[in-house]
From TrEMBL, chain A:
InterPro entries: CENP-O. It is found in: Chromosome, Centromere; Nucleus. The gene is CENPO. It comes from Patagioenas fasciata monilis. Residues 26-60 form a coiled coil. This is Centromere protein O.
From TrEMBL, chain B:
This is Centromere protein N. It comes from Patagioenas fasciata monilis. Belongs to the CENP-N/CHL4 family. GO terms for biological process: CENP-A containing chromatin assembly; chromosome segregation. It holds the Pfam family CENP-N. Its main location: nucleus. It is found in: Chromosome, Centromere; Nucleus. One of its GO terms (cellular component) is chromosome, centromeric region. Keywords: Centromere, Chromosome, Nucleus.
Amino acid sequence: MEEGKAHPPEGVFAHLEMLEARAHEAAVKQVAMEQRKEQLARLEARVQELRQWRDELQAKVELQEQGQHGQEGVVTDPVQHSAQAVLEWKIRKVKSTLQVFYLTGISGKLSKQGVCFCISTAYEGTYLDSYYLDLLTEPEVRIHRHSIPTFIPMEQIAKKYLQTDIRRFLSVLSDHLNAYVRRRYQADQLQEHFSDQIEGTMQRNSLCNLLVFNYNPSSKSETFPFNARLLYGDLCCSLPTEVVVSCAPDAPAALAEMAAAHSDLFRRLALHKAFGSFGSAGEHVDGAQ
Amino acid sequence: MEKTEAQLLCSRTLKKGAEPLTEATLLPTCLALGGKEVLVCCVCGSAAGRLQRLPGGAGSFTMDETVAEYIRRTVLKIPRDEIKTMLQKWGFLSETQLQTINFHQMKDNISQEVVQLCEENSASIKQAAVLDIIYNHSYPNKRIWSVYQMNKTEEETDFFDLTDFRKKFKRQLRSTLKNVTINFREYENNAIWIRIAWGTPYTKPNQYKTSYVVYHSQTPYTFISSSVLKSNLPLLCQALVVASNYQDIHEMELRSHSLNSLEDIVFKRYSQNFETYCPRPLQESTAARETDLRIVQENINEKERILRVNREAFGDGPQPKLEFAEYKLETMFTSDPKLEVLHKKEPFRCTVKFHSPHLLESLKSLAPAGMADAPLSPLLTCIPHKARNYFKIREKKGFFPGSFVSP
């Protein structure tokens, strides 16, 4: 048994080894085959790609040749080409610079007989109305057409500066327009966001340089103990120059004190912001009492 | 007591509280004034409209019949489906009162119901007038409006105070004519609507022949729709000038049914073609839309020129609405003196009138439609710019500000 055991195993092992080696060989071959197949596929795809590219290029060449045949005599000069591109680029740049000027609030354009100015107004990052002014320059500078509201004292400003200092004229006019639009914006904001704290509608005029209203600092109660009268003496300014806040003569001293504090607030803050600050301050006073 | 049926109290007396009425404190309730019997309060003697019978008397005092009739007629003017919203804007009748009205019946019946409710609230002419203002504000096109311009010499900042304006206006008008009904109503665009009903020193104001004034504060322009009673116009103008701190007023020769368009014209809000760099939508040219290549526009350049020129004259946007323009020509006939034809000093007189539901839009479309040469005569295109639609055309030496010479 020992021999029998020892001999056949030798033969079996050799056989197994041989089989193992063959299997390994086969596996290696298979892997190699697969790799080659993959590579082939890749290369085929690449060929396809290159062929397509070639076709495209050929088509392009053909097109170009056709084009050159079509417009005989015209030679495309690469230098001229790029010069034109530079010119176009320059024009684009100048145009966008002009648009940036529009952002400054005053922009102008030469028209047939003069200049057309556009004055755009803004308040706290919000663009508001734009106004136009068409000036004639011959024989002397004068206003041809405009879209500036009638209550803006443009004639007076023109009388002062138009002939002598057009820059000054435009900047003063722009100041007036901006201040007007800002005053109007504040009043609109107040009407829009704090309507429950104001009795009825606020009394105002076209220039918004006099605002009169009865109000209540907190939206909780139904009565309107304070009467405010805001006078904007400086037409180039969006803050009031004179503020009178009054309450009933028989009102308690605390209320009168509050009126004085409000009048100071109105003089320093934009109207809707002053009202916004009441929200916390009003409750504070209630808590203190 | 014999006088019981005639004992009337005005609302103020009633509010004060019932003082013990004795024979001595009672005034005769019927006063004969100028041959007319006038009812007065038997305590204070005022002849206000809201008189009530003494508590305990038979029935309550009904409001003035003319007021009732006026409210009824005003309601009848309003289109049926708008009656409710207008009454809500009026705010004189409470929401619960409005709910009792059946708005789906004949207008005549609606008006009766409204009048009945107004009687409950004892409406006066003051409230009735407010309803009329609301109606006229919603339908300004029913009237014809004329623009007036005011001037002043000194230039100072004006703090327009509405209460001041009202007071001055009323005082000025009442100082010359007592019998007038004046009502104000402000609208959100800083426009003040004024309704005036005119009387004479001996008659009550006629509520059916009213004048309307629309004034935008701090502007030199007023829009007047005057009453048929023209004689009161100077009074009205004077009151306006005084109340708004100006010195003189004149008519601008600009008239239309469309109040909004007149406002757009004088406040320069109409579309003007300003050349700027501001980004604005590009207009697609008509040529680009032509798809059929076989069709060749022979006069494409000419067409584009017409469009461009037309745009320069009218701008892109819609035009203000005017219904007419009138040109009066007063020009001399000039000829060779040797011919001696019509060698007179007398000018040619002729009037040209244009009528259209929308005059400026039709003028704008004349040239593109090929019915007139472009550009149109400046006489026609200057209407919104000059803010006038009545012109007198004289020789150049004329003092007229426009100083047009006929083409």
